[in-house]
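Figure-free illustration: sequence to structure, shown twice.
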Amino acid sequence: MSEDTTVQRLAFWSIFIGMTVLALKYGAYYVTGSVALYSDALESIVNVVAALAAWWAIRVSYKPADRNHPYGHHKAEYFSAVLEGVLIVVAALLILREVWLAWETPKTLDQPWLGLAINGGATVINAFWASLLINRGRKHRSPAMQADGKHIMTDVVTSVGVFAGLVGAVVTGWTFLDPLLAVMVALNILWQGWNVIGNSVQGLMDVGVDTEETMRIRDVISANAGGALEVHDLKTRIAGRMTFIEFHLVVEANMSVGDAHIICDRIENALMQQIPDASVVIHVEPEDEAKLPLGTVAVPFA
């Protein structure tokens, strides 16, 4: 099965998983009347909408480059992640509204153990699916899938906290714990929403690869640049699963175009083997364009 088919299938199944979990969590709220469980269910509504957006964005991102988008459609996934972050913030505000109403009129929970059992089953499903999405999202370099998985994992963490807190509320009879837990859920997902938006905006702003990845790229170039004099002005940017790499390659002025092309091909092939979905642009220059004294280092970087 091809990579794009795998990613799109996972995104499609996320919609049904989200709807199943939503139904279970709403059922837990329905039988208990707990505002904390209501907040948990409300976040699952966001999960379903986010899954739909991620599915659409991933499909668009795998479209081939065309006349209007010569660099492809990879950044579409970032729009999905930004939307998910905004929806998380909206859900948090709605939860805080319900907390205010519940605080004014606290009540004893109905059938708490049944509701907690239903919510616990939904949490187990979410934990499994979130782990799968995060792992596959990293493997296939999909920002939308990773954002979706991290959001669902946040839902898992908050659900565990709600479960533990409501057990305490039922045992002690402290009804104020219910809306208090909902406040904690709202604040937590606000923080996660902010992180999702921030990471997505960085992608839209053409953020470069991290330091470790930059050093790996440099090592690959150095190991395969035999015959060149210098490499400088290395630049990178990330767009979805794509990594764009650009640099200048200095060669002897009398080197033929064919020989310089062989060096470029060797470097490009090595980079694409090490970094999936890499796009490499190499600008060849004569030796008088070198930025460091020639002969000091085999392939120096500037």
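We now fold a second protein in the same way, so the two outputs can be compared directly.
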Amino acid sequence: MKFPRQYGLKEIAGIIKCEYIGDDDFPVQGMNEIHVVTPGDIVFVDHPKYYDKALKSAATIVLINKKVECPEGKALLISDDPFRDFNKLTSHFKPFEASNKMIAEDAEIGENTILQPNVVLGSNVKIGKNCLIHSSVNVGKDCVIGDNVIIHSGTVLGGDAFYYKKRAEGFDKLLSGGRVVVKDNVEIGANCTIDRGVTGDTIIGEGSKLDNLIQIGHDTVIGKKCLIASQVGIAGAVRVEDEVTIWGQVGIRSDVTIAKGTVLMAQCGVSKDTEPNTTYWGTPFGEVRTKLKEYAAIKKLPEIVKTFK
């Protein structure tokens, strides 16, 4: 998430009322999660296990809960609760806006695009040319849809990220200020849910086709010309490269990469990165021919056991 203008470090510290280490006018241009930070961004860290990763990241401002040595060329925001203060910044720069119309006044709708009844478009939504948005689709604030896109009934673009911090009193929600971006020539089936990024973008790549009843988590990027069948669940911050096929009821854990040309057979449970142009099956998943040999061997176990009697 980039801010509307460049801020000084002192200004940002004033918003969240915290100490800071660095020049008053040290440039702050935005805020992001660690996997998408760039110079000028704030990243937050609240556990010693991840201090080093945050301090060495591309982010030049680190919101941290301990006074540490500040790396050269960077600045620190010292907070007793970085999670809380990251939320304060999201609320400040991307506040919730209640809708009072089905189609927000500042929504942009391209030539020859058709909106069926009961479509809801939030503020600053942009939809390209020659799209067909079926009834009861909900497109949240700031989301972007390209040209020649079809979205079927009941789909929600831009729901909040499923991202919580466990505290003694319950679960504290990390607020979402990112977007969903749908590229050209995509089709999305009925009753799909695609969550917005926490600070960045959840992206559906050009020419990809999604079946019904699919969940895609925050900050996940789907590549070009992917096919995703019904009841697939993809967690947050997953990278699905181009020309991947994912069959029904596959589950993919967060922060993995599905390499180009991968095929995931039905009901795979994907827990780690895949190799390009390889077919996988099973839970725990593995290369399909290897898994079939394993199952064939398991069938022989009763006969093998008899030999020991």
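Summary for the second example: The CA atoms of residues 225 and 298 lie 37 Å apart.
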